[in-house]
From TrEMBL:
Name the record gives this protein: PP4R1 phosphatase
Keyword field contains Hydrolase: no
Ranges of the HEAT repeats in the UniProt entry: 115-154
UniProt entry keywords in alphabetical sequence: Repeat
Organism superkingdom: Eukaryota
InterPro entries membership: ARM-like (IPR011989), ARM-type_fold (IPR016024), HEAT (IPR000357), HEAT_type_2 (IPR021133), PP2A_Regulatory_Subunit_A (IPR051023)
Amino acid sequence: EPTVRTELMEQIPPIAIFLQESRPKFPAAFFEYLMPIVVRYLTDVNNQVRKASQEALLILLEQDLVAQSDIENKVCPILLDLSAPDSDDEYKVEAVNIICKMASMLSRTTVEHMLLPRFCELCSDGKLFQVRKICAANFGDICNAVGQEATERLLIPKFFELCSDSVWGMRKACAECFMAVSYTTSPEVRRSKLSPLFISLISDTCRWVRQAAFQSLGPFISTFANPSSAGLYIREDGTLSIRPSAQDVNSNPCQPSNNITLMSSSANAA
């Protein structure tokens, strides 16, 4: 019964945490018995079971309970199969969504060598706009996961494609994550490539795209500033914040420093 498999998936994370804490007694139980179930249910015929498996996998990754070898040899191959060009549409949408969510939890090498080529392919998926929409909404997170070199070499050309997509929702999603993408690039790329691209979004024919671009204008401009002198920095949750100056902190040593959030990145992009 699908409900039984779904319930089982919901119990996997707490069981895995228990086994992790009791490893001397159960040295390989999770890797031999539980992890294969999670991987198998990623391809279950029932969508609720697959969703429960995806959520369990993300929790396991967040808790650092999945070995690097399992990620590379078991999880990534399944996701690559599910997101292949000839894959079922529903499976493909789910796979690209989980790839984007787990990218920030994996090592840069794993993301760049195993997942980035497929992500670039999915950005150009001409069959499903839902796939391109997920890629656009999470583009800043992928850039942050792979770093400047891979972003400029592989991702920026795809970002240009998405920014000129015929579906206005794609262009809007790009405008919303523009600051996060810009923050990952060099000053020269910001000036010569991203600035003209941003002008095209702020002049878009769709008012929703223009509105999103105007809301990202300040954060995008801030990426040109020198963080040490401007006091601007990116927090772990992807928001642009202002670090209080030493003078402000010293003036009231009992007052905890408060960071002023200016604009969210692409984390919650529609």
